[in-house]
Amino acid sequence: MPANIEFPLDLPEVRILKSDLSGREIIIAVESTRSWAICPKCGQRTEEFHSFGRQLRLRHLPILGRPVIIEIRPKRFRCPRCEDHPTTTQKLGWYDERSPHTKAYDQWLLLSLIGSTVADVARKERLTYACVEGAMERLLESEVNWDEVQSLEILGLDEIALKKGHRDFVVPVTTRTADGELKLLGILPDRRRETVEEFLRQIPARLRGQVREVCTDMYEGYTSAVREVLPQARIVVDRFHVAKAYRDCADQLRKEVQRELKAELSETEYEGLKGTMWLFRRDPQELEEEEKERLALLFKCAPDLKQAHQLREELTAIFEAEHSKQSGRAAIEDWQKRVRESGLRCFDSFLKTLGNWMEEITNYFISRLTSGFVEGFNNKIKVLKRRCYGITNLKHLYQRLCLDLDGYRLFGL
Questions:
Q1: Is beta strand 154-157 parallel, antiparallel or unpaired with respect to 169-176?
Q2: Residues 222-229, mean pLDDT to the nearest whole number
Q3: Are the beta carbons of 361 and 354 closer than 8 angstroms?
């Protein structure tokens, strides 16, 4: 006697009429066991059976790698209470009326889409591109549901270009929950102050009042919008944006010095200075002895560059140290004084930046908030763009990012 294997369909309120396993697909005909429907006119339950509707063929979860098709003819019922006795088609909970899939199969598609592309999933499941996109439209929100957000203490604002080399910036607005999870709140089409203000005003009042810190870069459009809509929030300029600014100043001096040395020294003399760019940029504590010797040779040829390197590392150490806002500000002001006394001009633009943004920069020392969670999220966007060869539709970008962030929690078994 051949062995039988049973597979649960997980389709409530149906019984199997027959099954056909002869072709590539497994076709299973089912019938509803529910004996009533809701009249759309009066909203009452009716049990007066009228007829069967047209047959539906719904793609369901695969069995042993074979596609499964569920065939069902929905029951139709007539309402005896309404004057014209309208008929209505019964609706069961495991499929949507206009969907070619069961809800379980839609969830399967989205689970497969995490870390993949619409085209890849469509090809593997032998579906059209539109079928996979349809599952996204049915199951994924296109904007944040504020009713599901219980607290909102931190906001992150930062822009990213959708196309490399273009200035078509979009602005992901993110938050970090108390347990450290990242949540996407929205993607703004541009970084104009008016656009940012409009989004912030859409945040429900109960949540706007909770925001205590907003981490951003040194862009007036963001900070002005925050001051206007969230006056109670403390603006923190991200320390890594600050670090990029002063490190770029030192690196610009290195470029100028190395160009001069290349012109002045013979090829043999300059040979020992080649490849020192990354040595100059790296943390000195991470260098091997041979690398330290090569960097020391560069500094011997360019004492000003050595001084710029030392000042750069001193400012980094200030941000790494345990400071209060007051002591941190005092340490940065002492650093400014040493830079001016050094006679170096490479940090002039950064000194001006410090003068304009000192309050927001030193707010970092209060709770040491950084936009590390924002930058990590931007990396997710970059990976998604490379994987999908670019995404310019902001609605789809929002849906795909939410899927990558929460997909396993929402659709995993």
A1: antiparallel
A2: 96
A3: yes
